[in-house]
Amino acid sequence: MNTVTKAQGLQALALIGHGTVGKALYQQLNKLPGYVIAGVAVKHPEKHSASIPPELLHRNAMDLINDERVTVVLEAIDDEAASLEYAKRALELGKTYITASKKMVANHMETLHLCENQFGAKLLYDAAVCGAIPVLRTLHSHLKAEPIHAVRGILNGTCNYILSRMWNEEIGFEEALEAAQSLGFAESDPSSDVDGHDTYYKALLIARTMHSGTPPLSRVQFEGIRQVSSADVSAAKKHGQKIKLVANIQQSPDKFTIDIRPTNVEAGDALYHVDGALNAVSLEGLHMGTLTLQGLGAGGHPTASAMVGDLMNTPQQALLTLRKVRAQLGV
Ligand SMILES: NC(=O)c1ccc[n+]([C@@H]2O[C@H](COP(=O)([O-])OP(=O)(O)OC[C@H]3O[C@@H](n4cnc5c(N)ncnc54)[C@H](OP(=O)(O)O)[C@@H]3O)[C@@H](O)[C@H]2O)c1
């Protein structure tokens, strides 16, 4: 495999996780020219023997990360502690680590950033913020030209789905939550979504990108949607408004604030028409005005597509493109 990979100019990838996101990622990567999957690590390999060739299945993700053929590790698992250990090891080895695990990155940004700097490695996590919507990539590219002083958005599809059902059908929170759970838009334990934690992690990752490092947060406030009653929604409707869980991330020269709360949104607001499980994010720049991105903020394929997008932006990919251009030019 080593010689085959090198001879064919293929880049070897390690995948960790084969759940909702990992399965979609495995399918997308298998169709991507220029790459080869060196292995897939999961917690219970026996569950995956029908969909992954046995020679690719691993129980020990560290073996795969340590494999010297592997240059990029893509991870989508639901275990924060394990995810952190895998990320640290891959970065220590100078590899690129692409993850969808927002909680892990949000809680350990400083450690991971130190590893990146110390070992010349790269951590990419666009998939962790609003799935297929390229929020962090767009921020990175605009920040090269001008400061982005505010980001405002609907960052959680579960909350938006529940609030949309409450508005459309004039039902209460519990009934809308049950409907969301039965259709797979909410987990059996919905607290991370409905209590605002998931939105907070994403807001923190956005703030970090806006500031290009650890943001000097002067105020963080977040609440979820459990307290939103059908009476609140009816009152909003009477005034031609909708209630949305809106995250506001503001940067000024001396302070940085994150504010997440259920908000009455007017019909003229870009967020008013963002319904169901969709997410939307508005960026405000000094010269560009307001730019709003809208799309699928979660789900296997949308999230995996953001990870593939990160893969296209790895330092290794930039090097390969440079080599191709040089070969074409004969320099
Ligand atoms: N689902 C989404 O729409 C979405 C969107 C954005 C971000 N994310 C994030 O992406 C991550 C994965 O989400 P998911 O929905 O795909 O989860 P999931 O369906 O529960 O799948 C988790 C996968 O991780 C594997 N796993 C767990 N612990 C492991 C370990 N220590 N080593 C190796 N593999 C391990 C599991 O293996 P077994 O199958 O063998 O048990 C499983 O394949 C989470 O951090 C989530 O927050 C998810």
Shape: globular
Quote the beta fraction. Answer: 15-25%
| Bound molecule types | NADP nicotinamide-adenine-dinucleotide phosphate
User: Over all CA atoms, what is the radius of gyration?
Assistant: 21 Å
What is the helical fraction, as a range of percent? Answer: 40-55%
Helix-and-strand structural type: alpha/beta
- Mean residue pLDDT: 93
Profile the largest sheet.
Answer: 6 strands, parallel
Order of helix and strand elements from N to C terminus: HEHEEHEHEHHEHEHHHHEHEEEEHH
Q: Which regions have little confidence, pLDDT < 50, spanning 5+ residues?
A: none
Instruction: Tell me which oligomeric state these chains represent.
Output: single chain
Strand order of the largest sheet: 3-2-1-4-5-6
Number of strands: 12
Task: For the record, give the distance between the C-alpha atoms at the N and C termini, rounded to a whole number.
Answer: 30 Å
Number of distinct helices: 14
Q: How are the secondary structure elements laid out?
A:
Blueprint: H1 2-7, E1 11-16, H2 20-30, E2 35-41, E3 57-58, H3 61-66, E4 70-75, H4 80-92, E5 96-99, H5 102-107, H6 109-119, E6 122-124, H7 135-143, E7 148-154, H8 157-169, H9 173-182, H10 191-194, H11 197-211, E8 217-222, H12 230-238, E9 242-252, E10 255-265, E11 278-285, E12 289-296, H13 300-312, H14 315-329
Parallel strand pairs: 1-2, 1-4, 2-3, 4-5, 5-6, 8-10
Antiparallel strand pairs: 7-9, 7-11, 9-10, 11-12
Helix pairs in contact: 2-13, 4-6, 7-11, 8-9
